[in-house]
Design goal:
The structure is a single chain. The protein is 38% helix and 23% strand. By secondary structure, the chain is an alpha+beta fold. It has one domain: Aminopeptidase (3-Layer(aba) Sandwich).
């Protein structure tokens, strides 16, 4: 692993003495884990461009190696803030530059009951480019579905309402997907079948994340190219001096099977009313937030071997 670490760092740091010192910097941990909040936004200039369409926590433990991913439904209602969780980044940025990460991390930490050490944000165009750089991904579509209201990028404010959407369709089976196709597969939420639910969408997003990881395992040298591309396409609060430590952590677990989960069985959709600003939302069953934090902690402990 030491040789591999040197090779990965060489293009970026020239592997000088100072670079070697950077690799010795330790990441913050809690219960031996470093937790990253990953958020995806639509981007652009239309209304809602900074709403986080995708939210997931990637929890990594170096020894023994474990990678756990917890997806969070975008419609989860945060009563103390009287807003959905997918608005946290937007409202935080409205308060102050950089406040989006602060508010999103603190809210997710409160919901899941674990500290969030770092956050990263990528818009959908960046997501497409990252997958295309990898040469696409292979995904097994488990359920066929059709979405007649998939938003067309750049036409969100078109005066012709019917011109804002396209119809997309996926059939059952293993398929090679470009960045654009993978994004549609992960983002679709208007199918009339069960695939139109927030929970099904979370499952598909998990599939895409796993597919990306599998592609990297097949060709780990792609990490160098992806590192360079991701720096241009993503925002994060990871300071430059910690980047080598993050890469080292990733190299140590990149072949470790990823465990995934979501909190779909712990939440439900209450009747639309003024308590939730007349929106379609999700709240904990029995208003019991402790069930969520307990579930998350048990899920993370299950990775201890």
């Amino acid at each position: 692993m030491g040789i591999c670490v040197r090779f990965i760092f060489l293009p970026t740091f020239g592997f000088t003495k100072s670079a070697w010192k950077l690799t010795q910097i330790k990441l913050p941990v809690s219960d031996d884990r470093t937790n990253f909040l990953v958020m995806g936004v639509g981007g652009g200039s239309h209304t809602g461009a900074d709403l986080t369409d995708t939210m997931a926590v990637v929890s990594v433990r170096a020894e023994p190696p474990d990678v756990a991913v917890i997806t969070i439904p975008r419609d989860l209602w945060i009563q103390s803030l009287k807003a959905k969780i997918n608005t946290m980044y937007y409202y935080g940025e409205e308060k102050q530059a950089g406040g989006g990460f602060i508010l999103a991390k603190s809210t997710v930490s409160e919901v899941l009951g674990i500290p969030i050490h770092f956050a990263a944000l990528i818009d959908f165009s960046g997501f497409e480019k990252l997958i295309d750089v990898m040469g696409g991904v292979e995904i097994n579509v488990l359920n066929s579905f059709e979405d007649k209201l998939y938003p067309i990028a750049g036409k969100e404010n078109d005066s012709c309402e019917s011109c804002r959407y396209e119809t997309i369709k996926f059939d059952i089976g293993i398929q090679s997907m470009s960045g654009s196709t993978a994004l549609k597969f992960a983002r679709s939420r208007n199918s009339e079948s069960d695939e139109g639910s927030d929970f099904a969408r979370s499952k598909r997003q998990e599939q895409v994340m796993k597919a990306v990881r599998e592609k990297i395992i097949q060709n780990p040298l792609k990490m160098i190219e992806l590192q360079a591309v991701s720096r241009k396409l993503t925002l994060s609060d990871i300071s430059p001096d910690l980047v080598p430590a993050v890469i080292k952590l990733g190299l140590g677990v990149y072949k470790t099977p990823v465990r995934t989960t979501n909190i779909s069985t712990l939440v439900y959709n209450p009747p639309i009313n003024s308590l939730y600003d007349s929106q379609w939302v999700l709240i904990p069953i029995g208003d019991n937030w402790l069930r969520i934090t307990s579930y998350v902690k048990d899920f993370l402990r299950a990775g201890i071997q």
